[in-house]
Amino acid sequence: MSFSGHMTILDVLDTGLMDDRRERLLEESSREALKGFYSVFKAADDDLQFVLLTGVTKFSQVSVFSGFNQPADISMDPRYEALCGITQEELERCFSVPVREMAESEGVSFEEMMSRLKLQYDGYHFSRKLTDIYNPFSLLNAFASQTIQDYWFRSGTPSYLIRLLAHTDENLDEITGKYYDPQEFVDYKASVEKPLPMIYQSGYLTIKDYNREFGTFLLDYPNNEVKKGFVSLVASDYLNPSQEMGSWIRNVVASLRKGEAEALCKLFTSFLADIPYTMRRKSDERERERYFHYTFYLIFRLISVYTVCTEKVQSEGRVDCIVETAGYVYIFEFKLDGSADEALRQIEEKGYARPFASDRRTLYKIGVSFSSRTGTVEEWKIG
Question: Which of 301, 178, 169 is nearest to 235 (CA)?
């Protein structure tokens, strides 16, 4: 029942939908229903010795829990951080048989299958101890079907998060990969202008590092399953391309692995041209620059699911990206309203290729000119 109420709030959050009598928002009605449910605990207080609530987003400051004694929040308590997940030690100790069966089915080693499972389902952390936690729902589904797929993300589309992101001036690249005080992401605030707590508490971001000096936490995507699913959803909503994002990303990755630099040029150019002009058209210089940054942030975040991708979002309209595959290294420089030659010259001047001087892989230096007026690639050169 608590899960049903939790989902009801999320489903109607920021939709403007009214109840049957059109007297108040469904969001408010759902909160009142939950408040009534939890008030039962207060009436039974003398008979209760231990109560554990799980799977309930912490709606503090919205009176959901005011119907009974405020529960102790253990969501970031180091003593309980692995209470509802599967640790690396537990995976190796309790699930070695299904892992070995999956490895044999895929024709890979036991170690390789463990690595694949870790990239896909591991990466959650719930306290400053930073104990690795696997998503149990996805992991157990993978064992049951003997296949690595996106089980958790497919179990529910986070449309409410897309609605919340639409209300804020922040993009995902401005939210992820940053250190926060826990007060900024632990407590849900009844304000759609601050989507970070909902994104964190819904499991799409997790703790990745802890700064003991300042008591702050680094937040980012937990694993490939979440990164691919969430970024794909956001990219489809933000860019609204006419061609399917997943298929296009797979074609890009295939070209990267084969060393087909010219094919990459055609794929990028056609994809950006397929974005509706109404999405690409921005009213002022700041918005055009943000569109430029955010477009390539989303694209390379998706590419990074399949291969090594280092992103450096810089000022002055520059986006540097290095993509590595088994046989090739690509150094991209995108220039906003500049020339492809300028982009290539910057790769040389900044020495982006120096770390790969002794690398045996084939190196491509790619300069791209991006037009803020048309929102598409104007020129592409390979050095």
Answer: 301
E strands, 314-361, are 318-324, 328-336
Alpha helices in the chain (DSSP H): 2-12, 26-43, 88-94, 96-106, 110-121, 136-145, 151-154, 159-166, 172-175, 196-201, 224-239, 245-258, 261-273, 277-280, 285-303, 340-350
How far apart are alpha carbons 309 and 317 in whole angstroms?
A: 19
Calpha distance 51→69 (Å, rounded): 12
Calpha distance 118→123 (Å, rounded): 7
Which positions ≥6 away from 227 have C-beta within 8 Å?
221, 301, 302, 304, 305
Which whole-number Å values give the CA distances from 332 to 40, 212, 308, 371, in the listed order? 59, 35, 14, 16
C-alpha dist (Å) from residue 41 to 37, 68, 74, 137: 8, 6, 18, 28
- Quote the tokens at residue 290: 């943000």
For 137-162, what is each residue's pLDDT tens digit?
A: 999 999 999 999 999 988 876 777 78
Say if residues 106 and 131 touch (Cβ distance below 8 Å).
no
Cα–Cα distance between 379 and 340 in angstroms, integer? 6
With 80 as the cut, is the pLDDT of residue 353 above it? Answer: yes
- The residue behind tokens 């970031």 is 76
**Nearest-angstrom CA–CA distance, 171 and 238:** 10
Q: Residue 367 pairs with which residues in a beta bridge?
A: 333, 381
Per-residue pLDDT tens digits for 99-120: 999 999 999 999 999 999 999 9
Task: Look at the pTM and tell me if it is higher than 0.70.
Answer: yes
How far apart are alpha carbons 12 and 5 in whole angstroms? 11
- pLDDT of the residue at 197: 85
160 CB neighbour count, 10 Å cutoff: 20
Tell me what percent of the chain is helix, strand and coil, each rounded to the nearest 5. 50, 15, 35
Supply 152's token pair: 């958790």
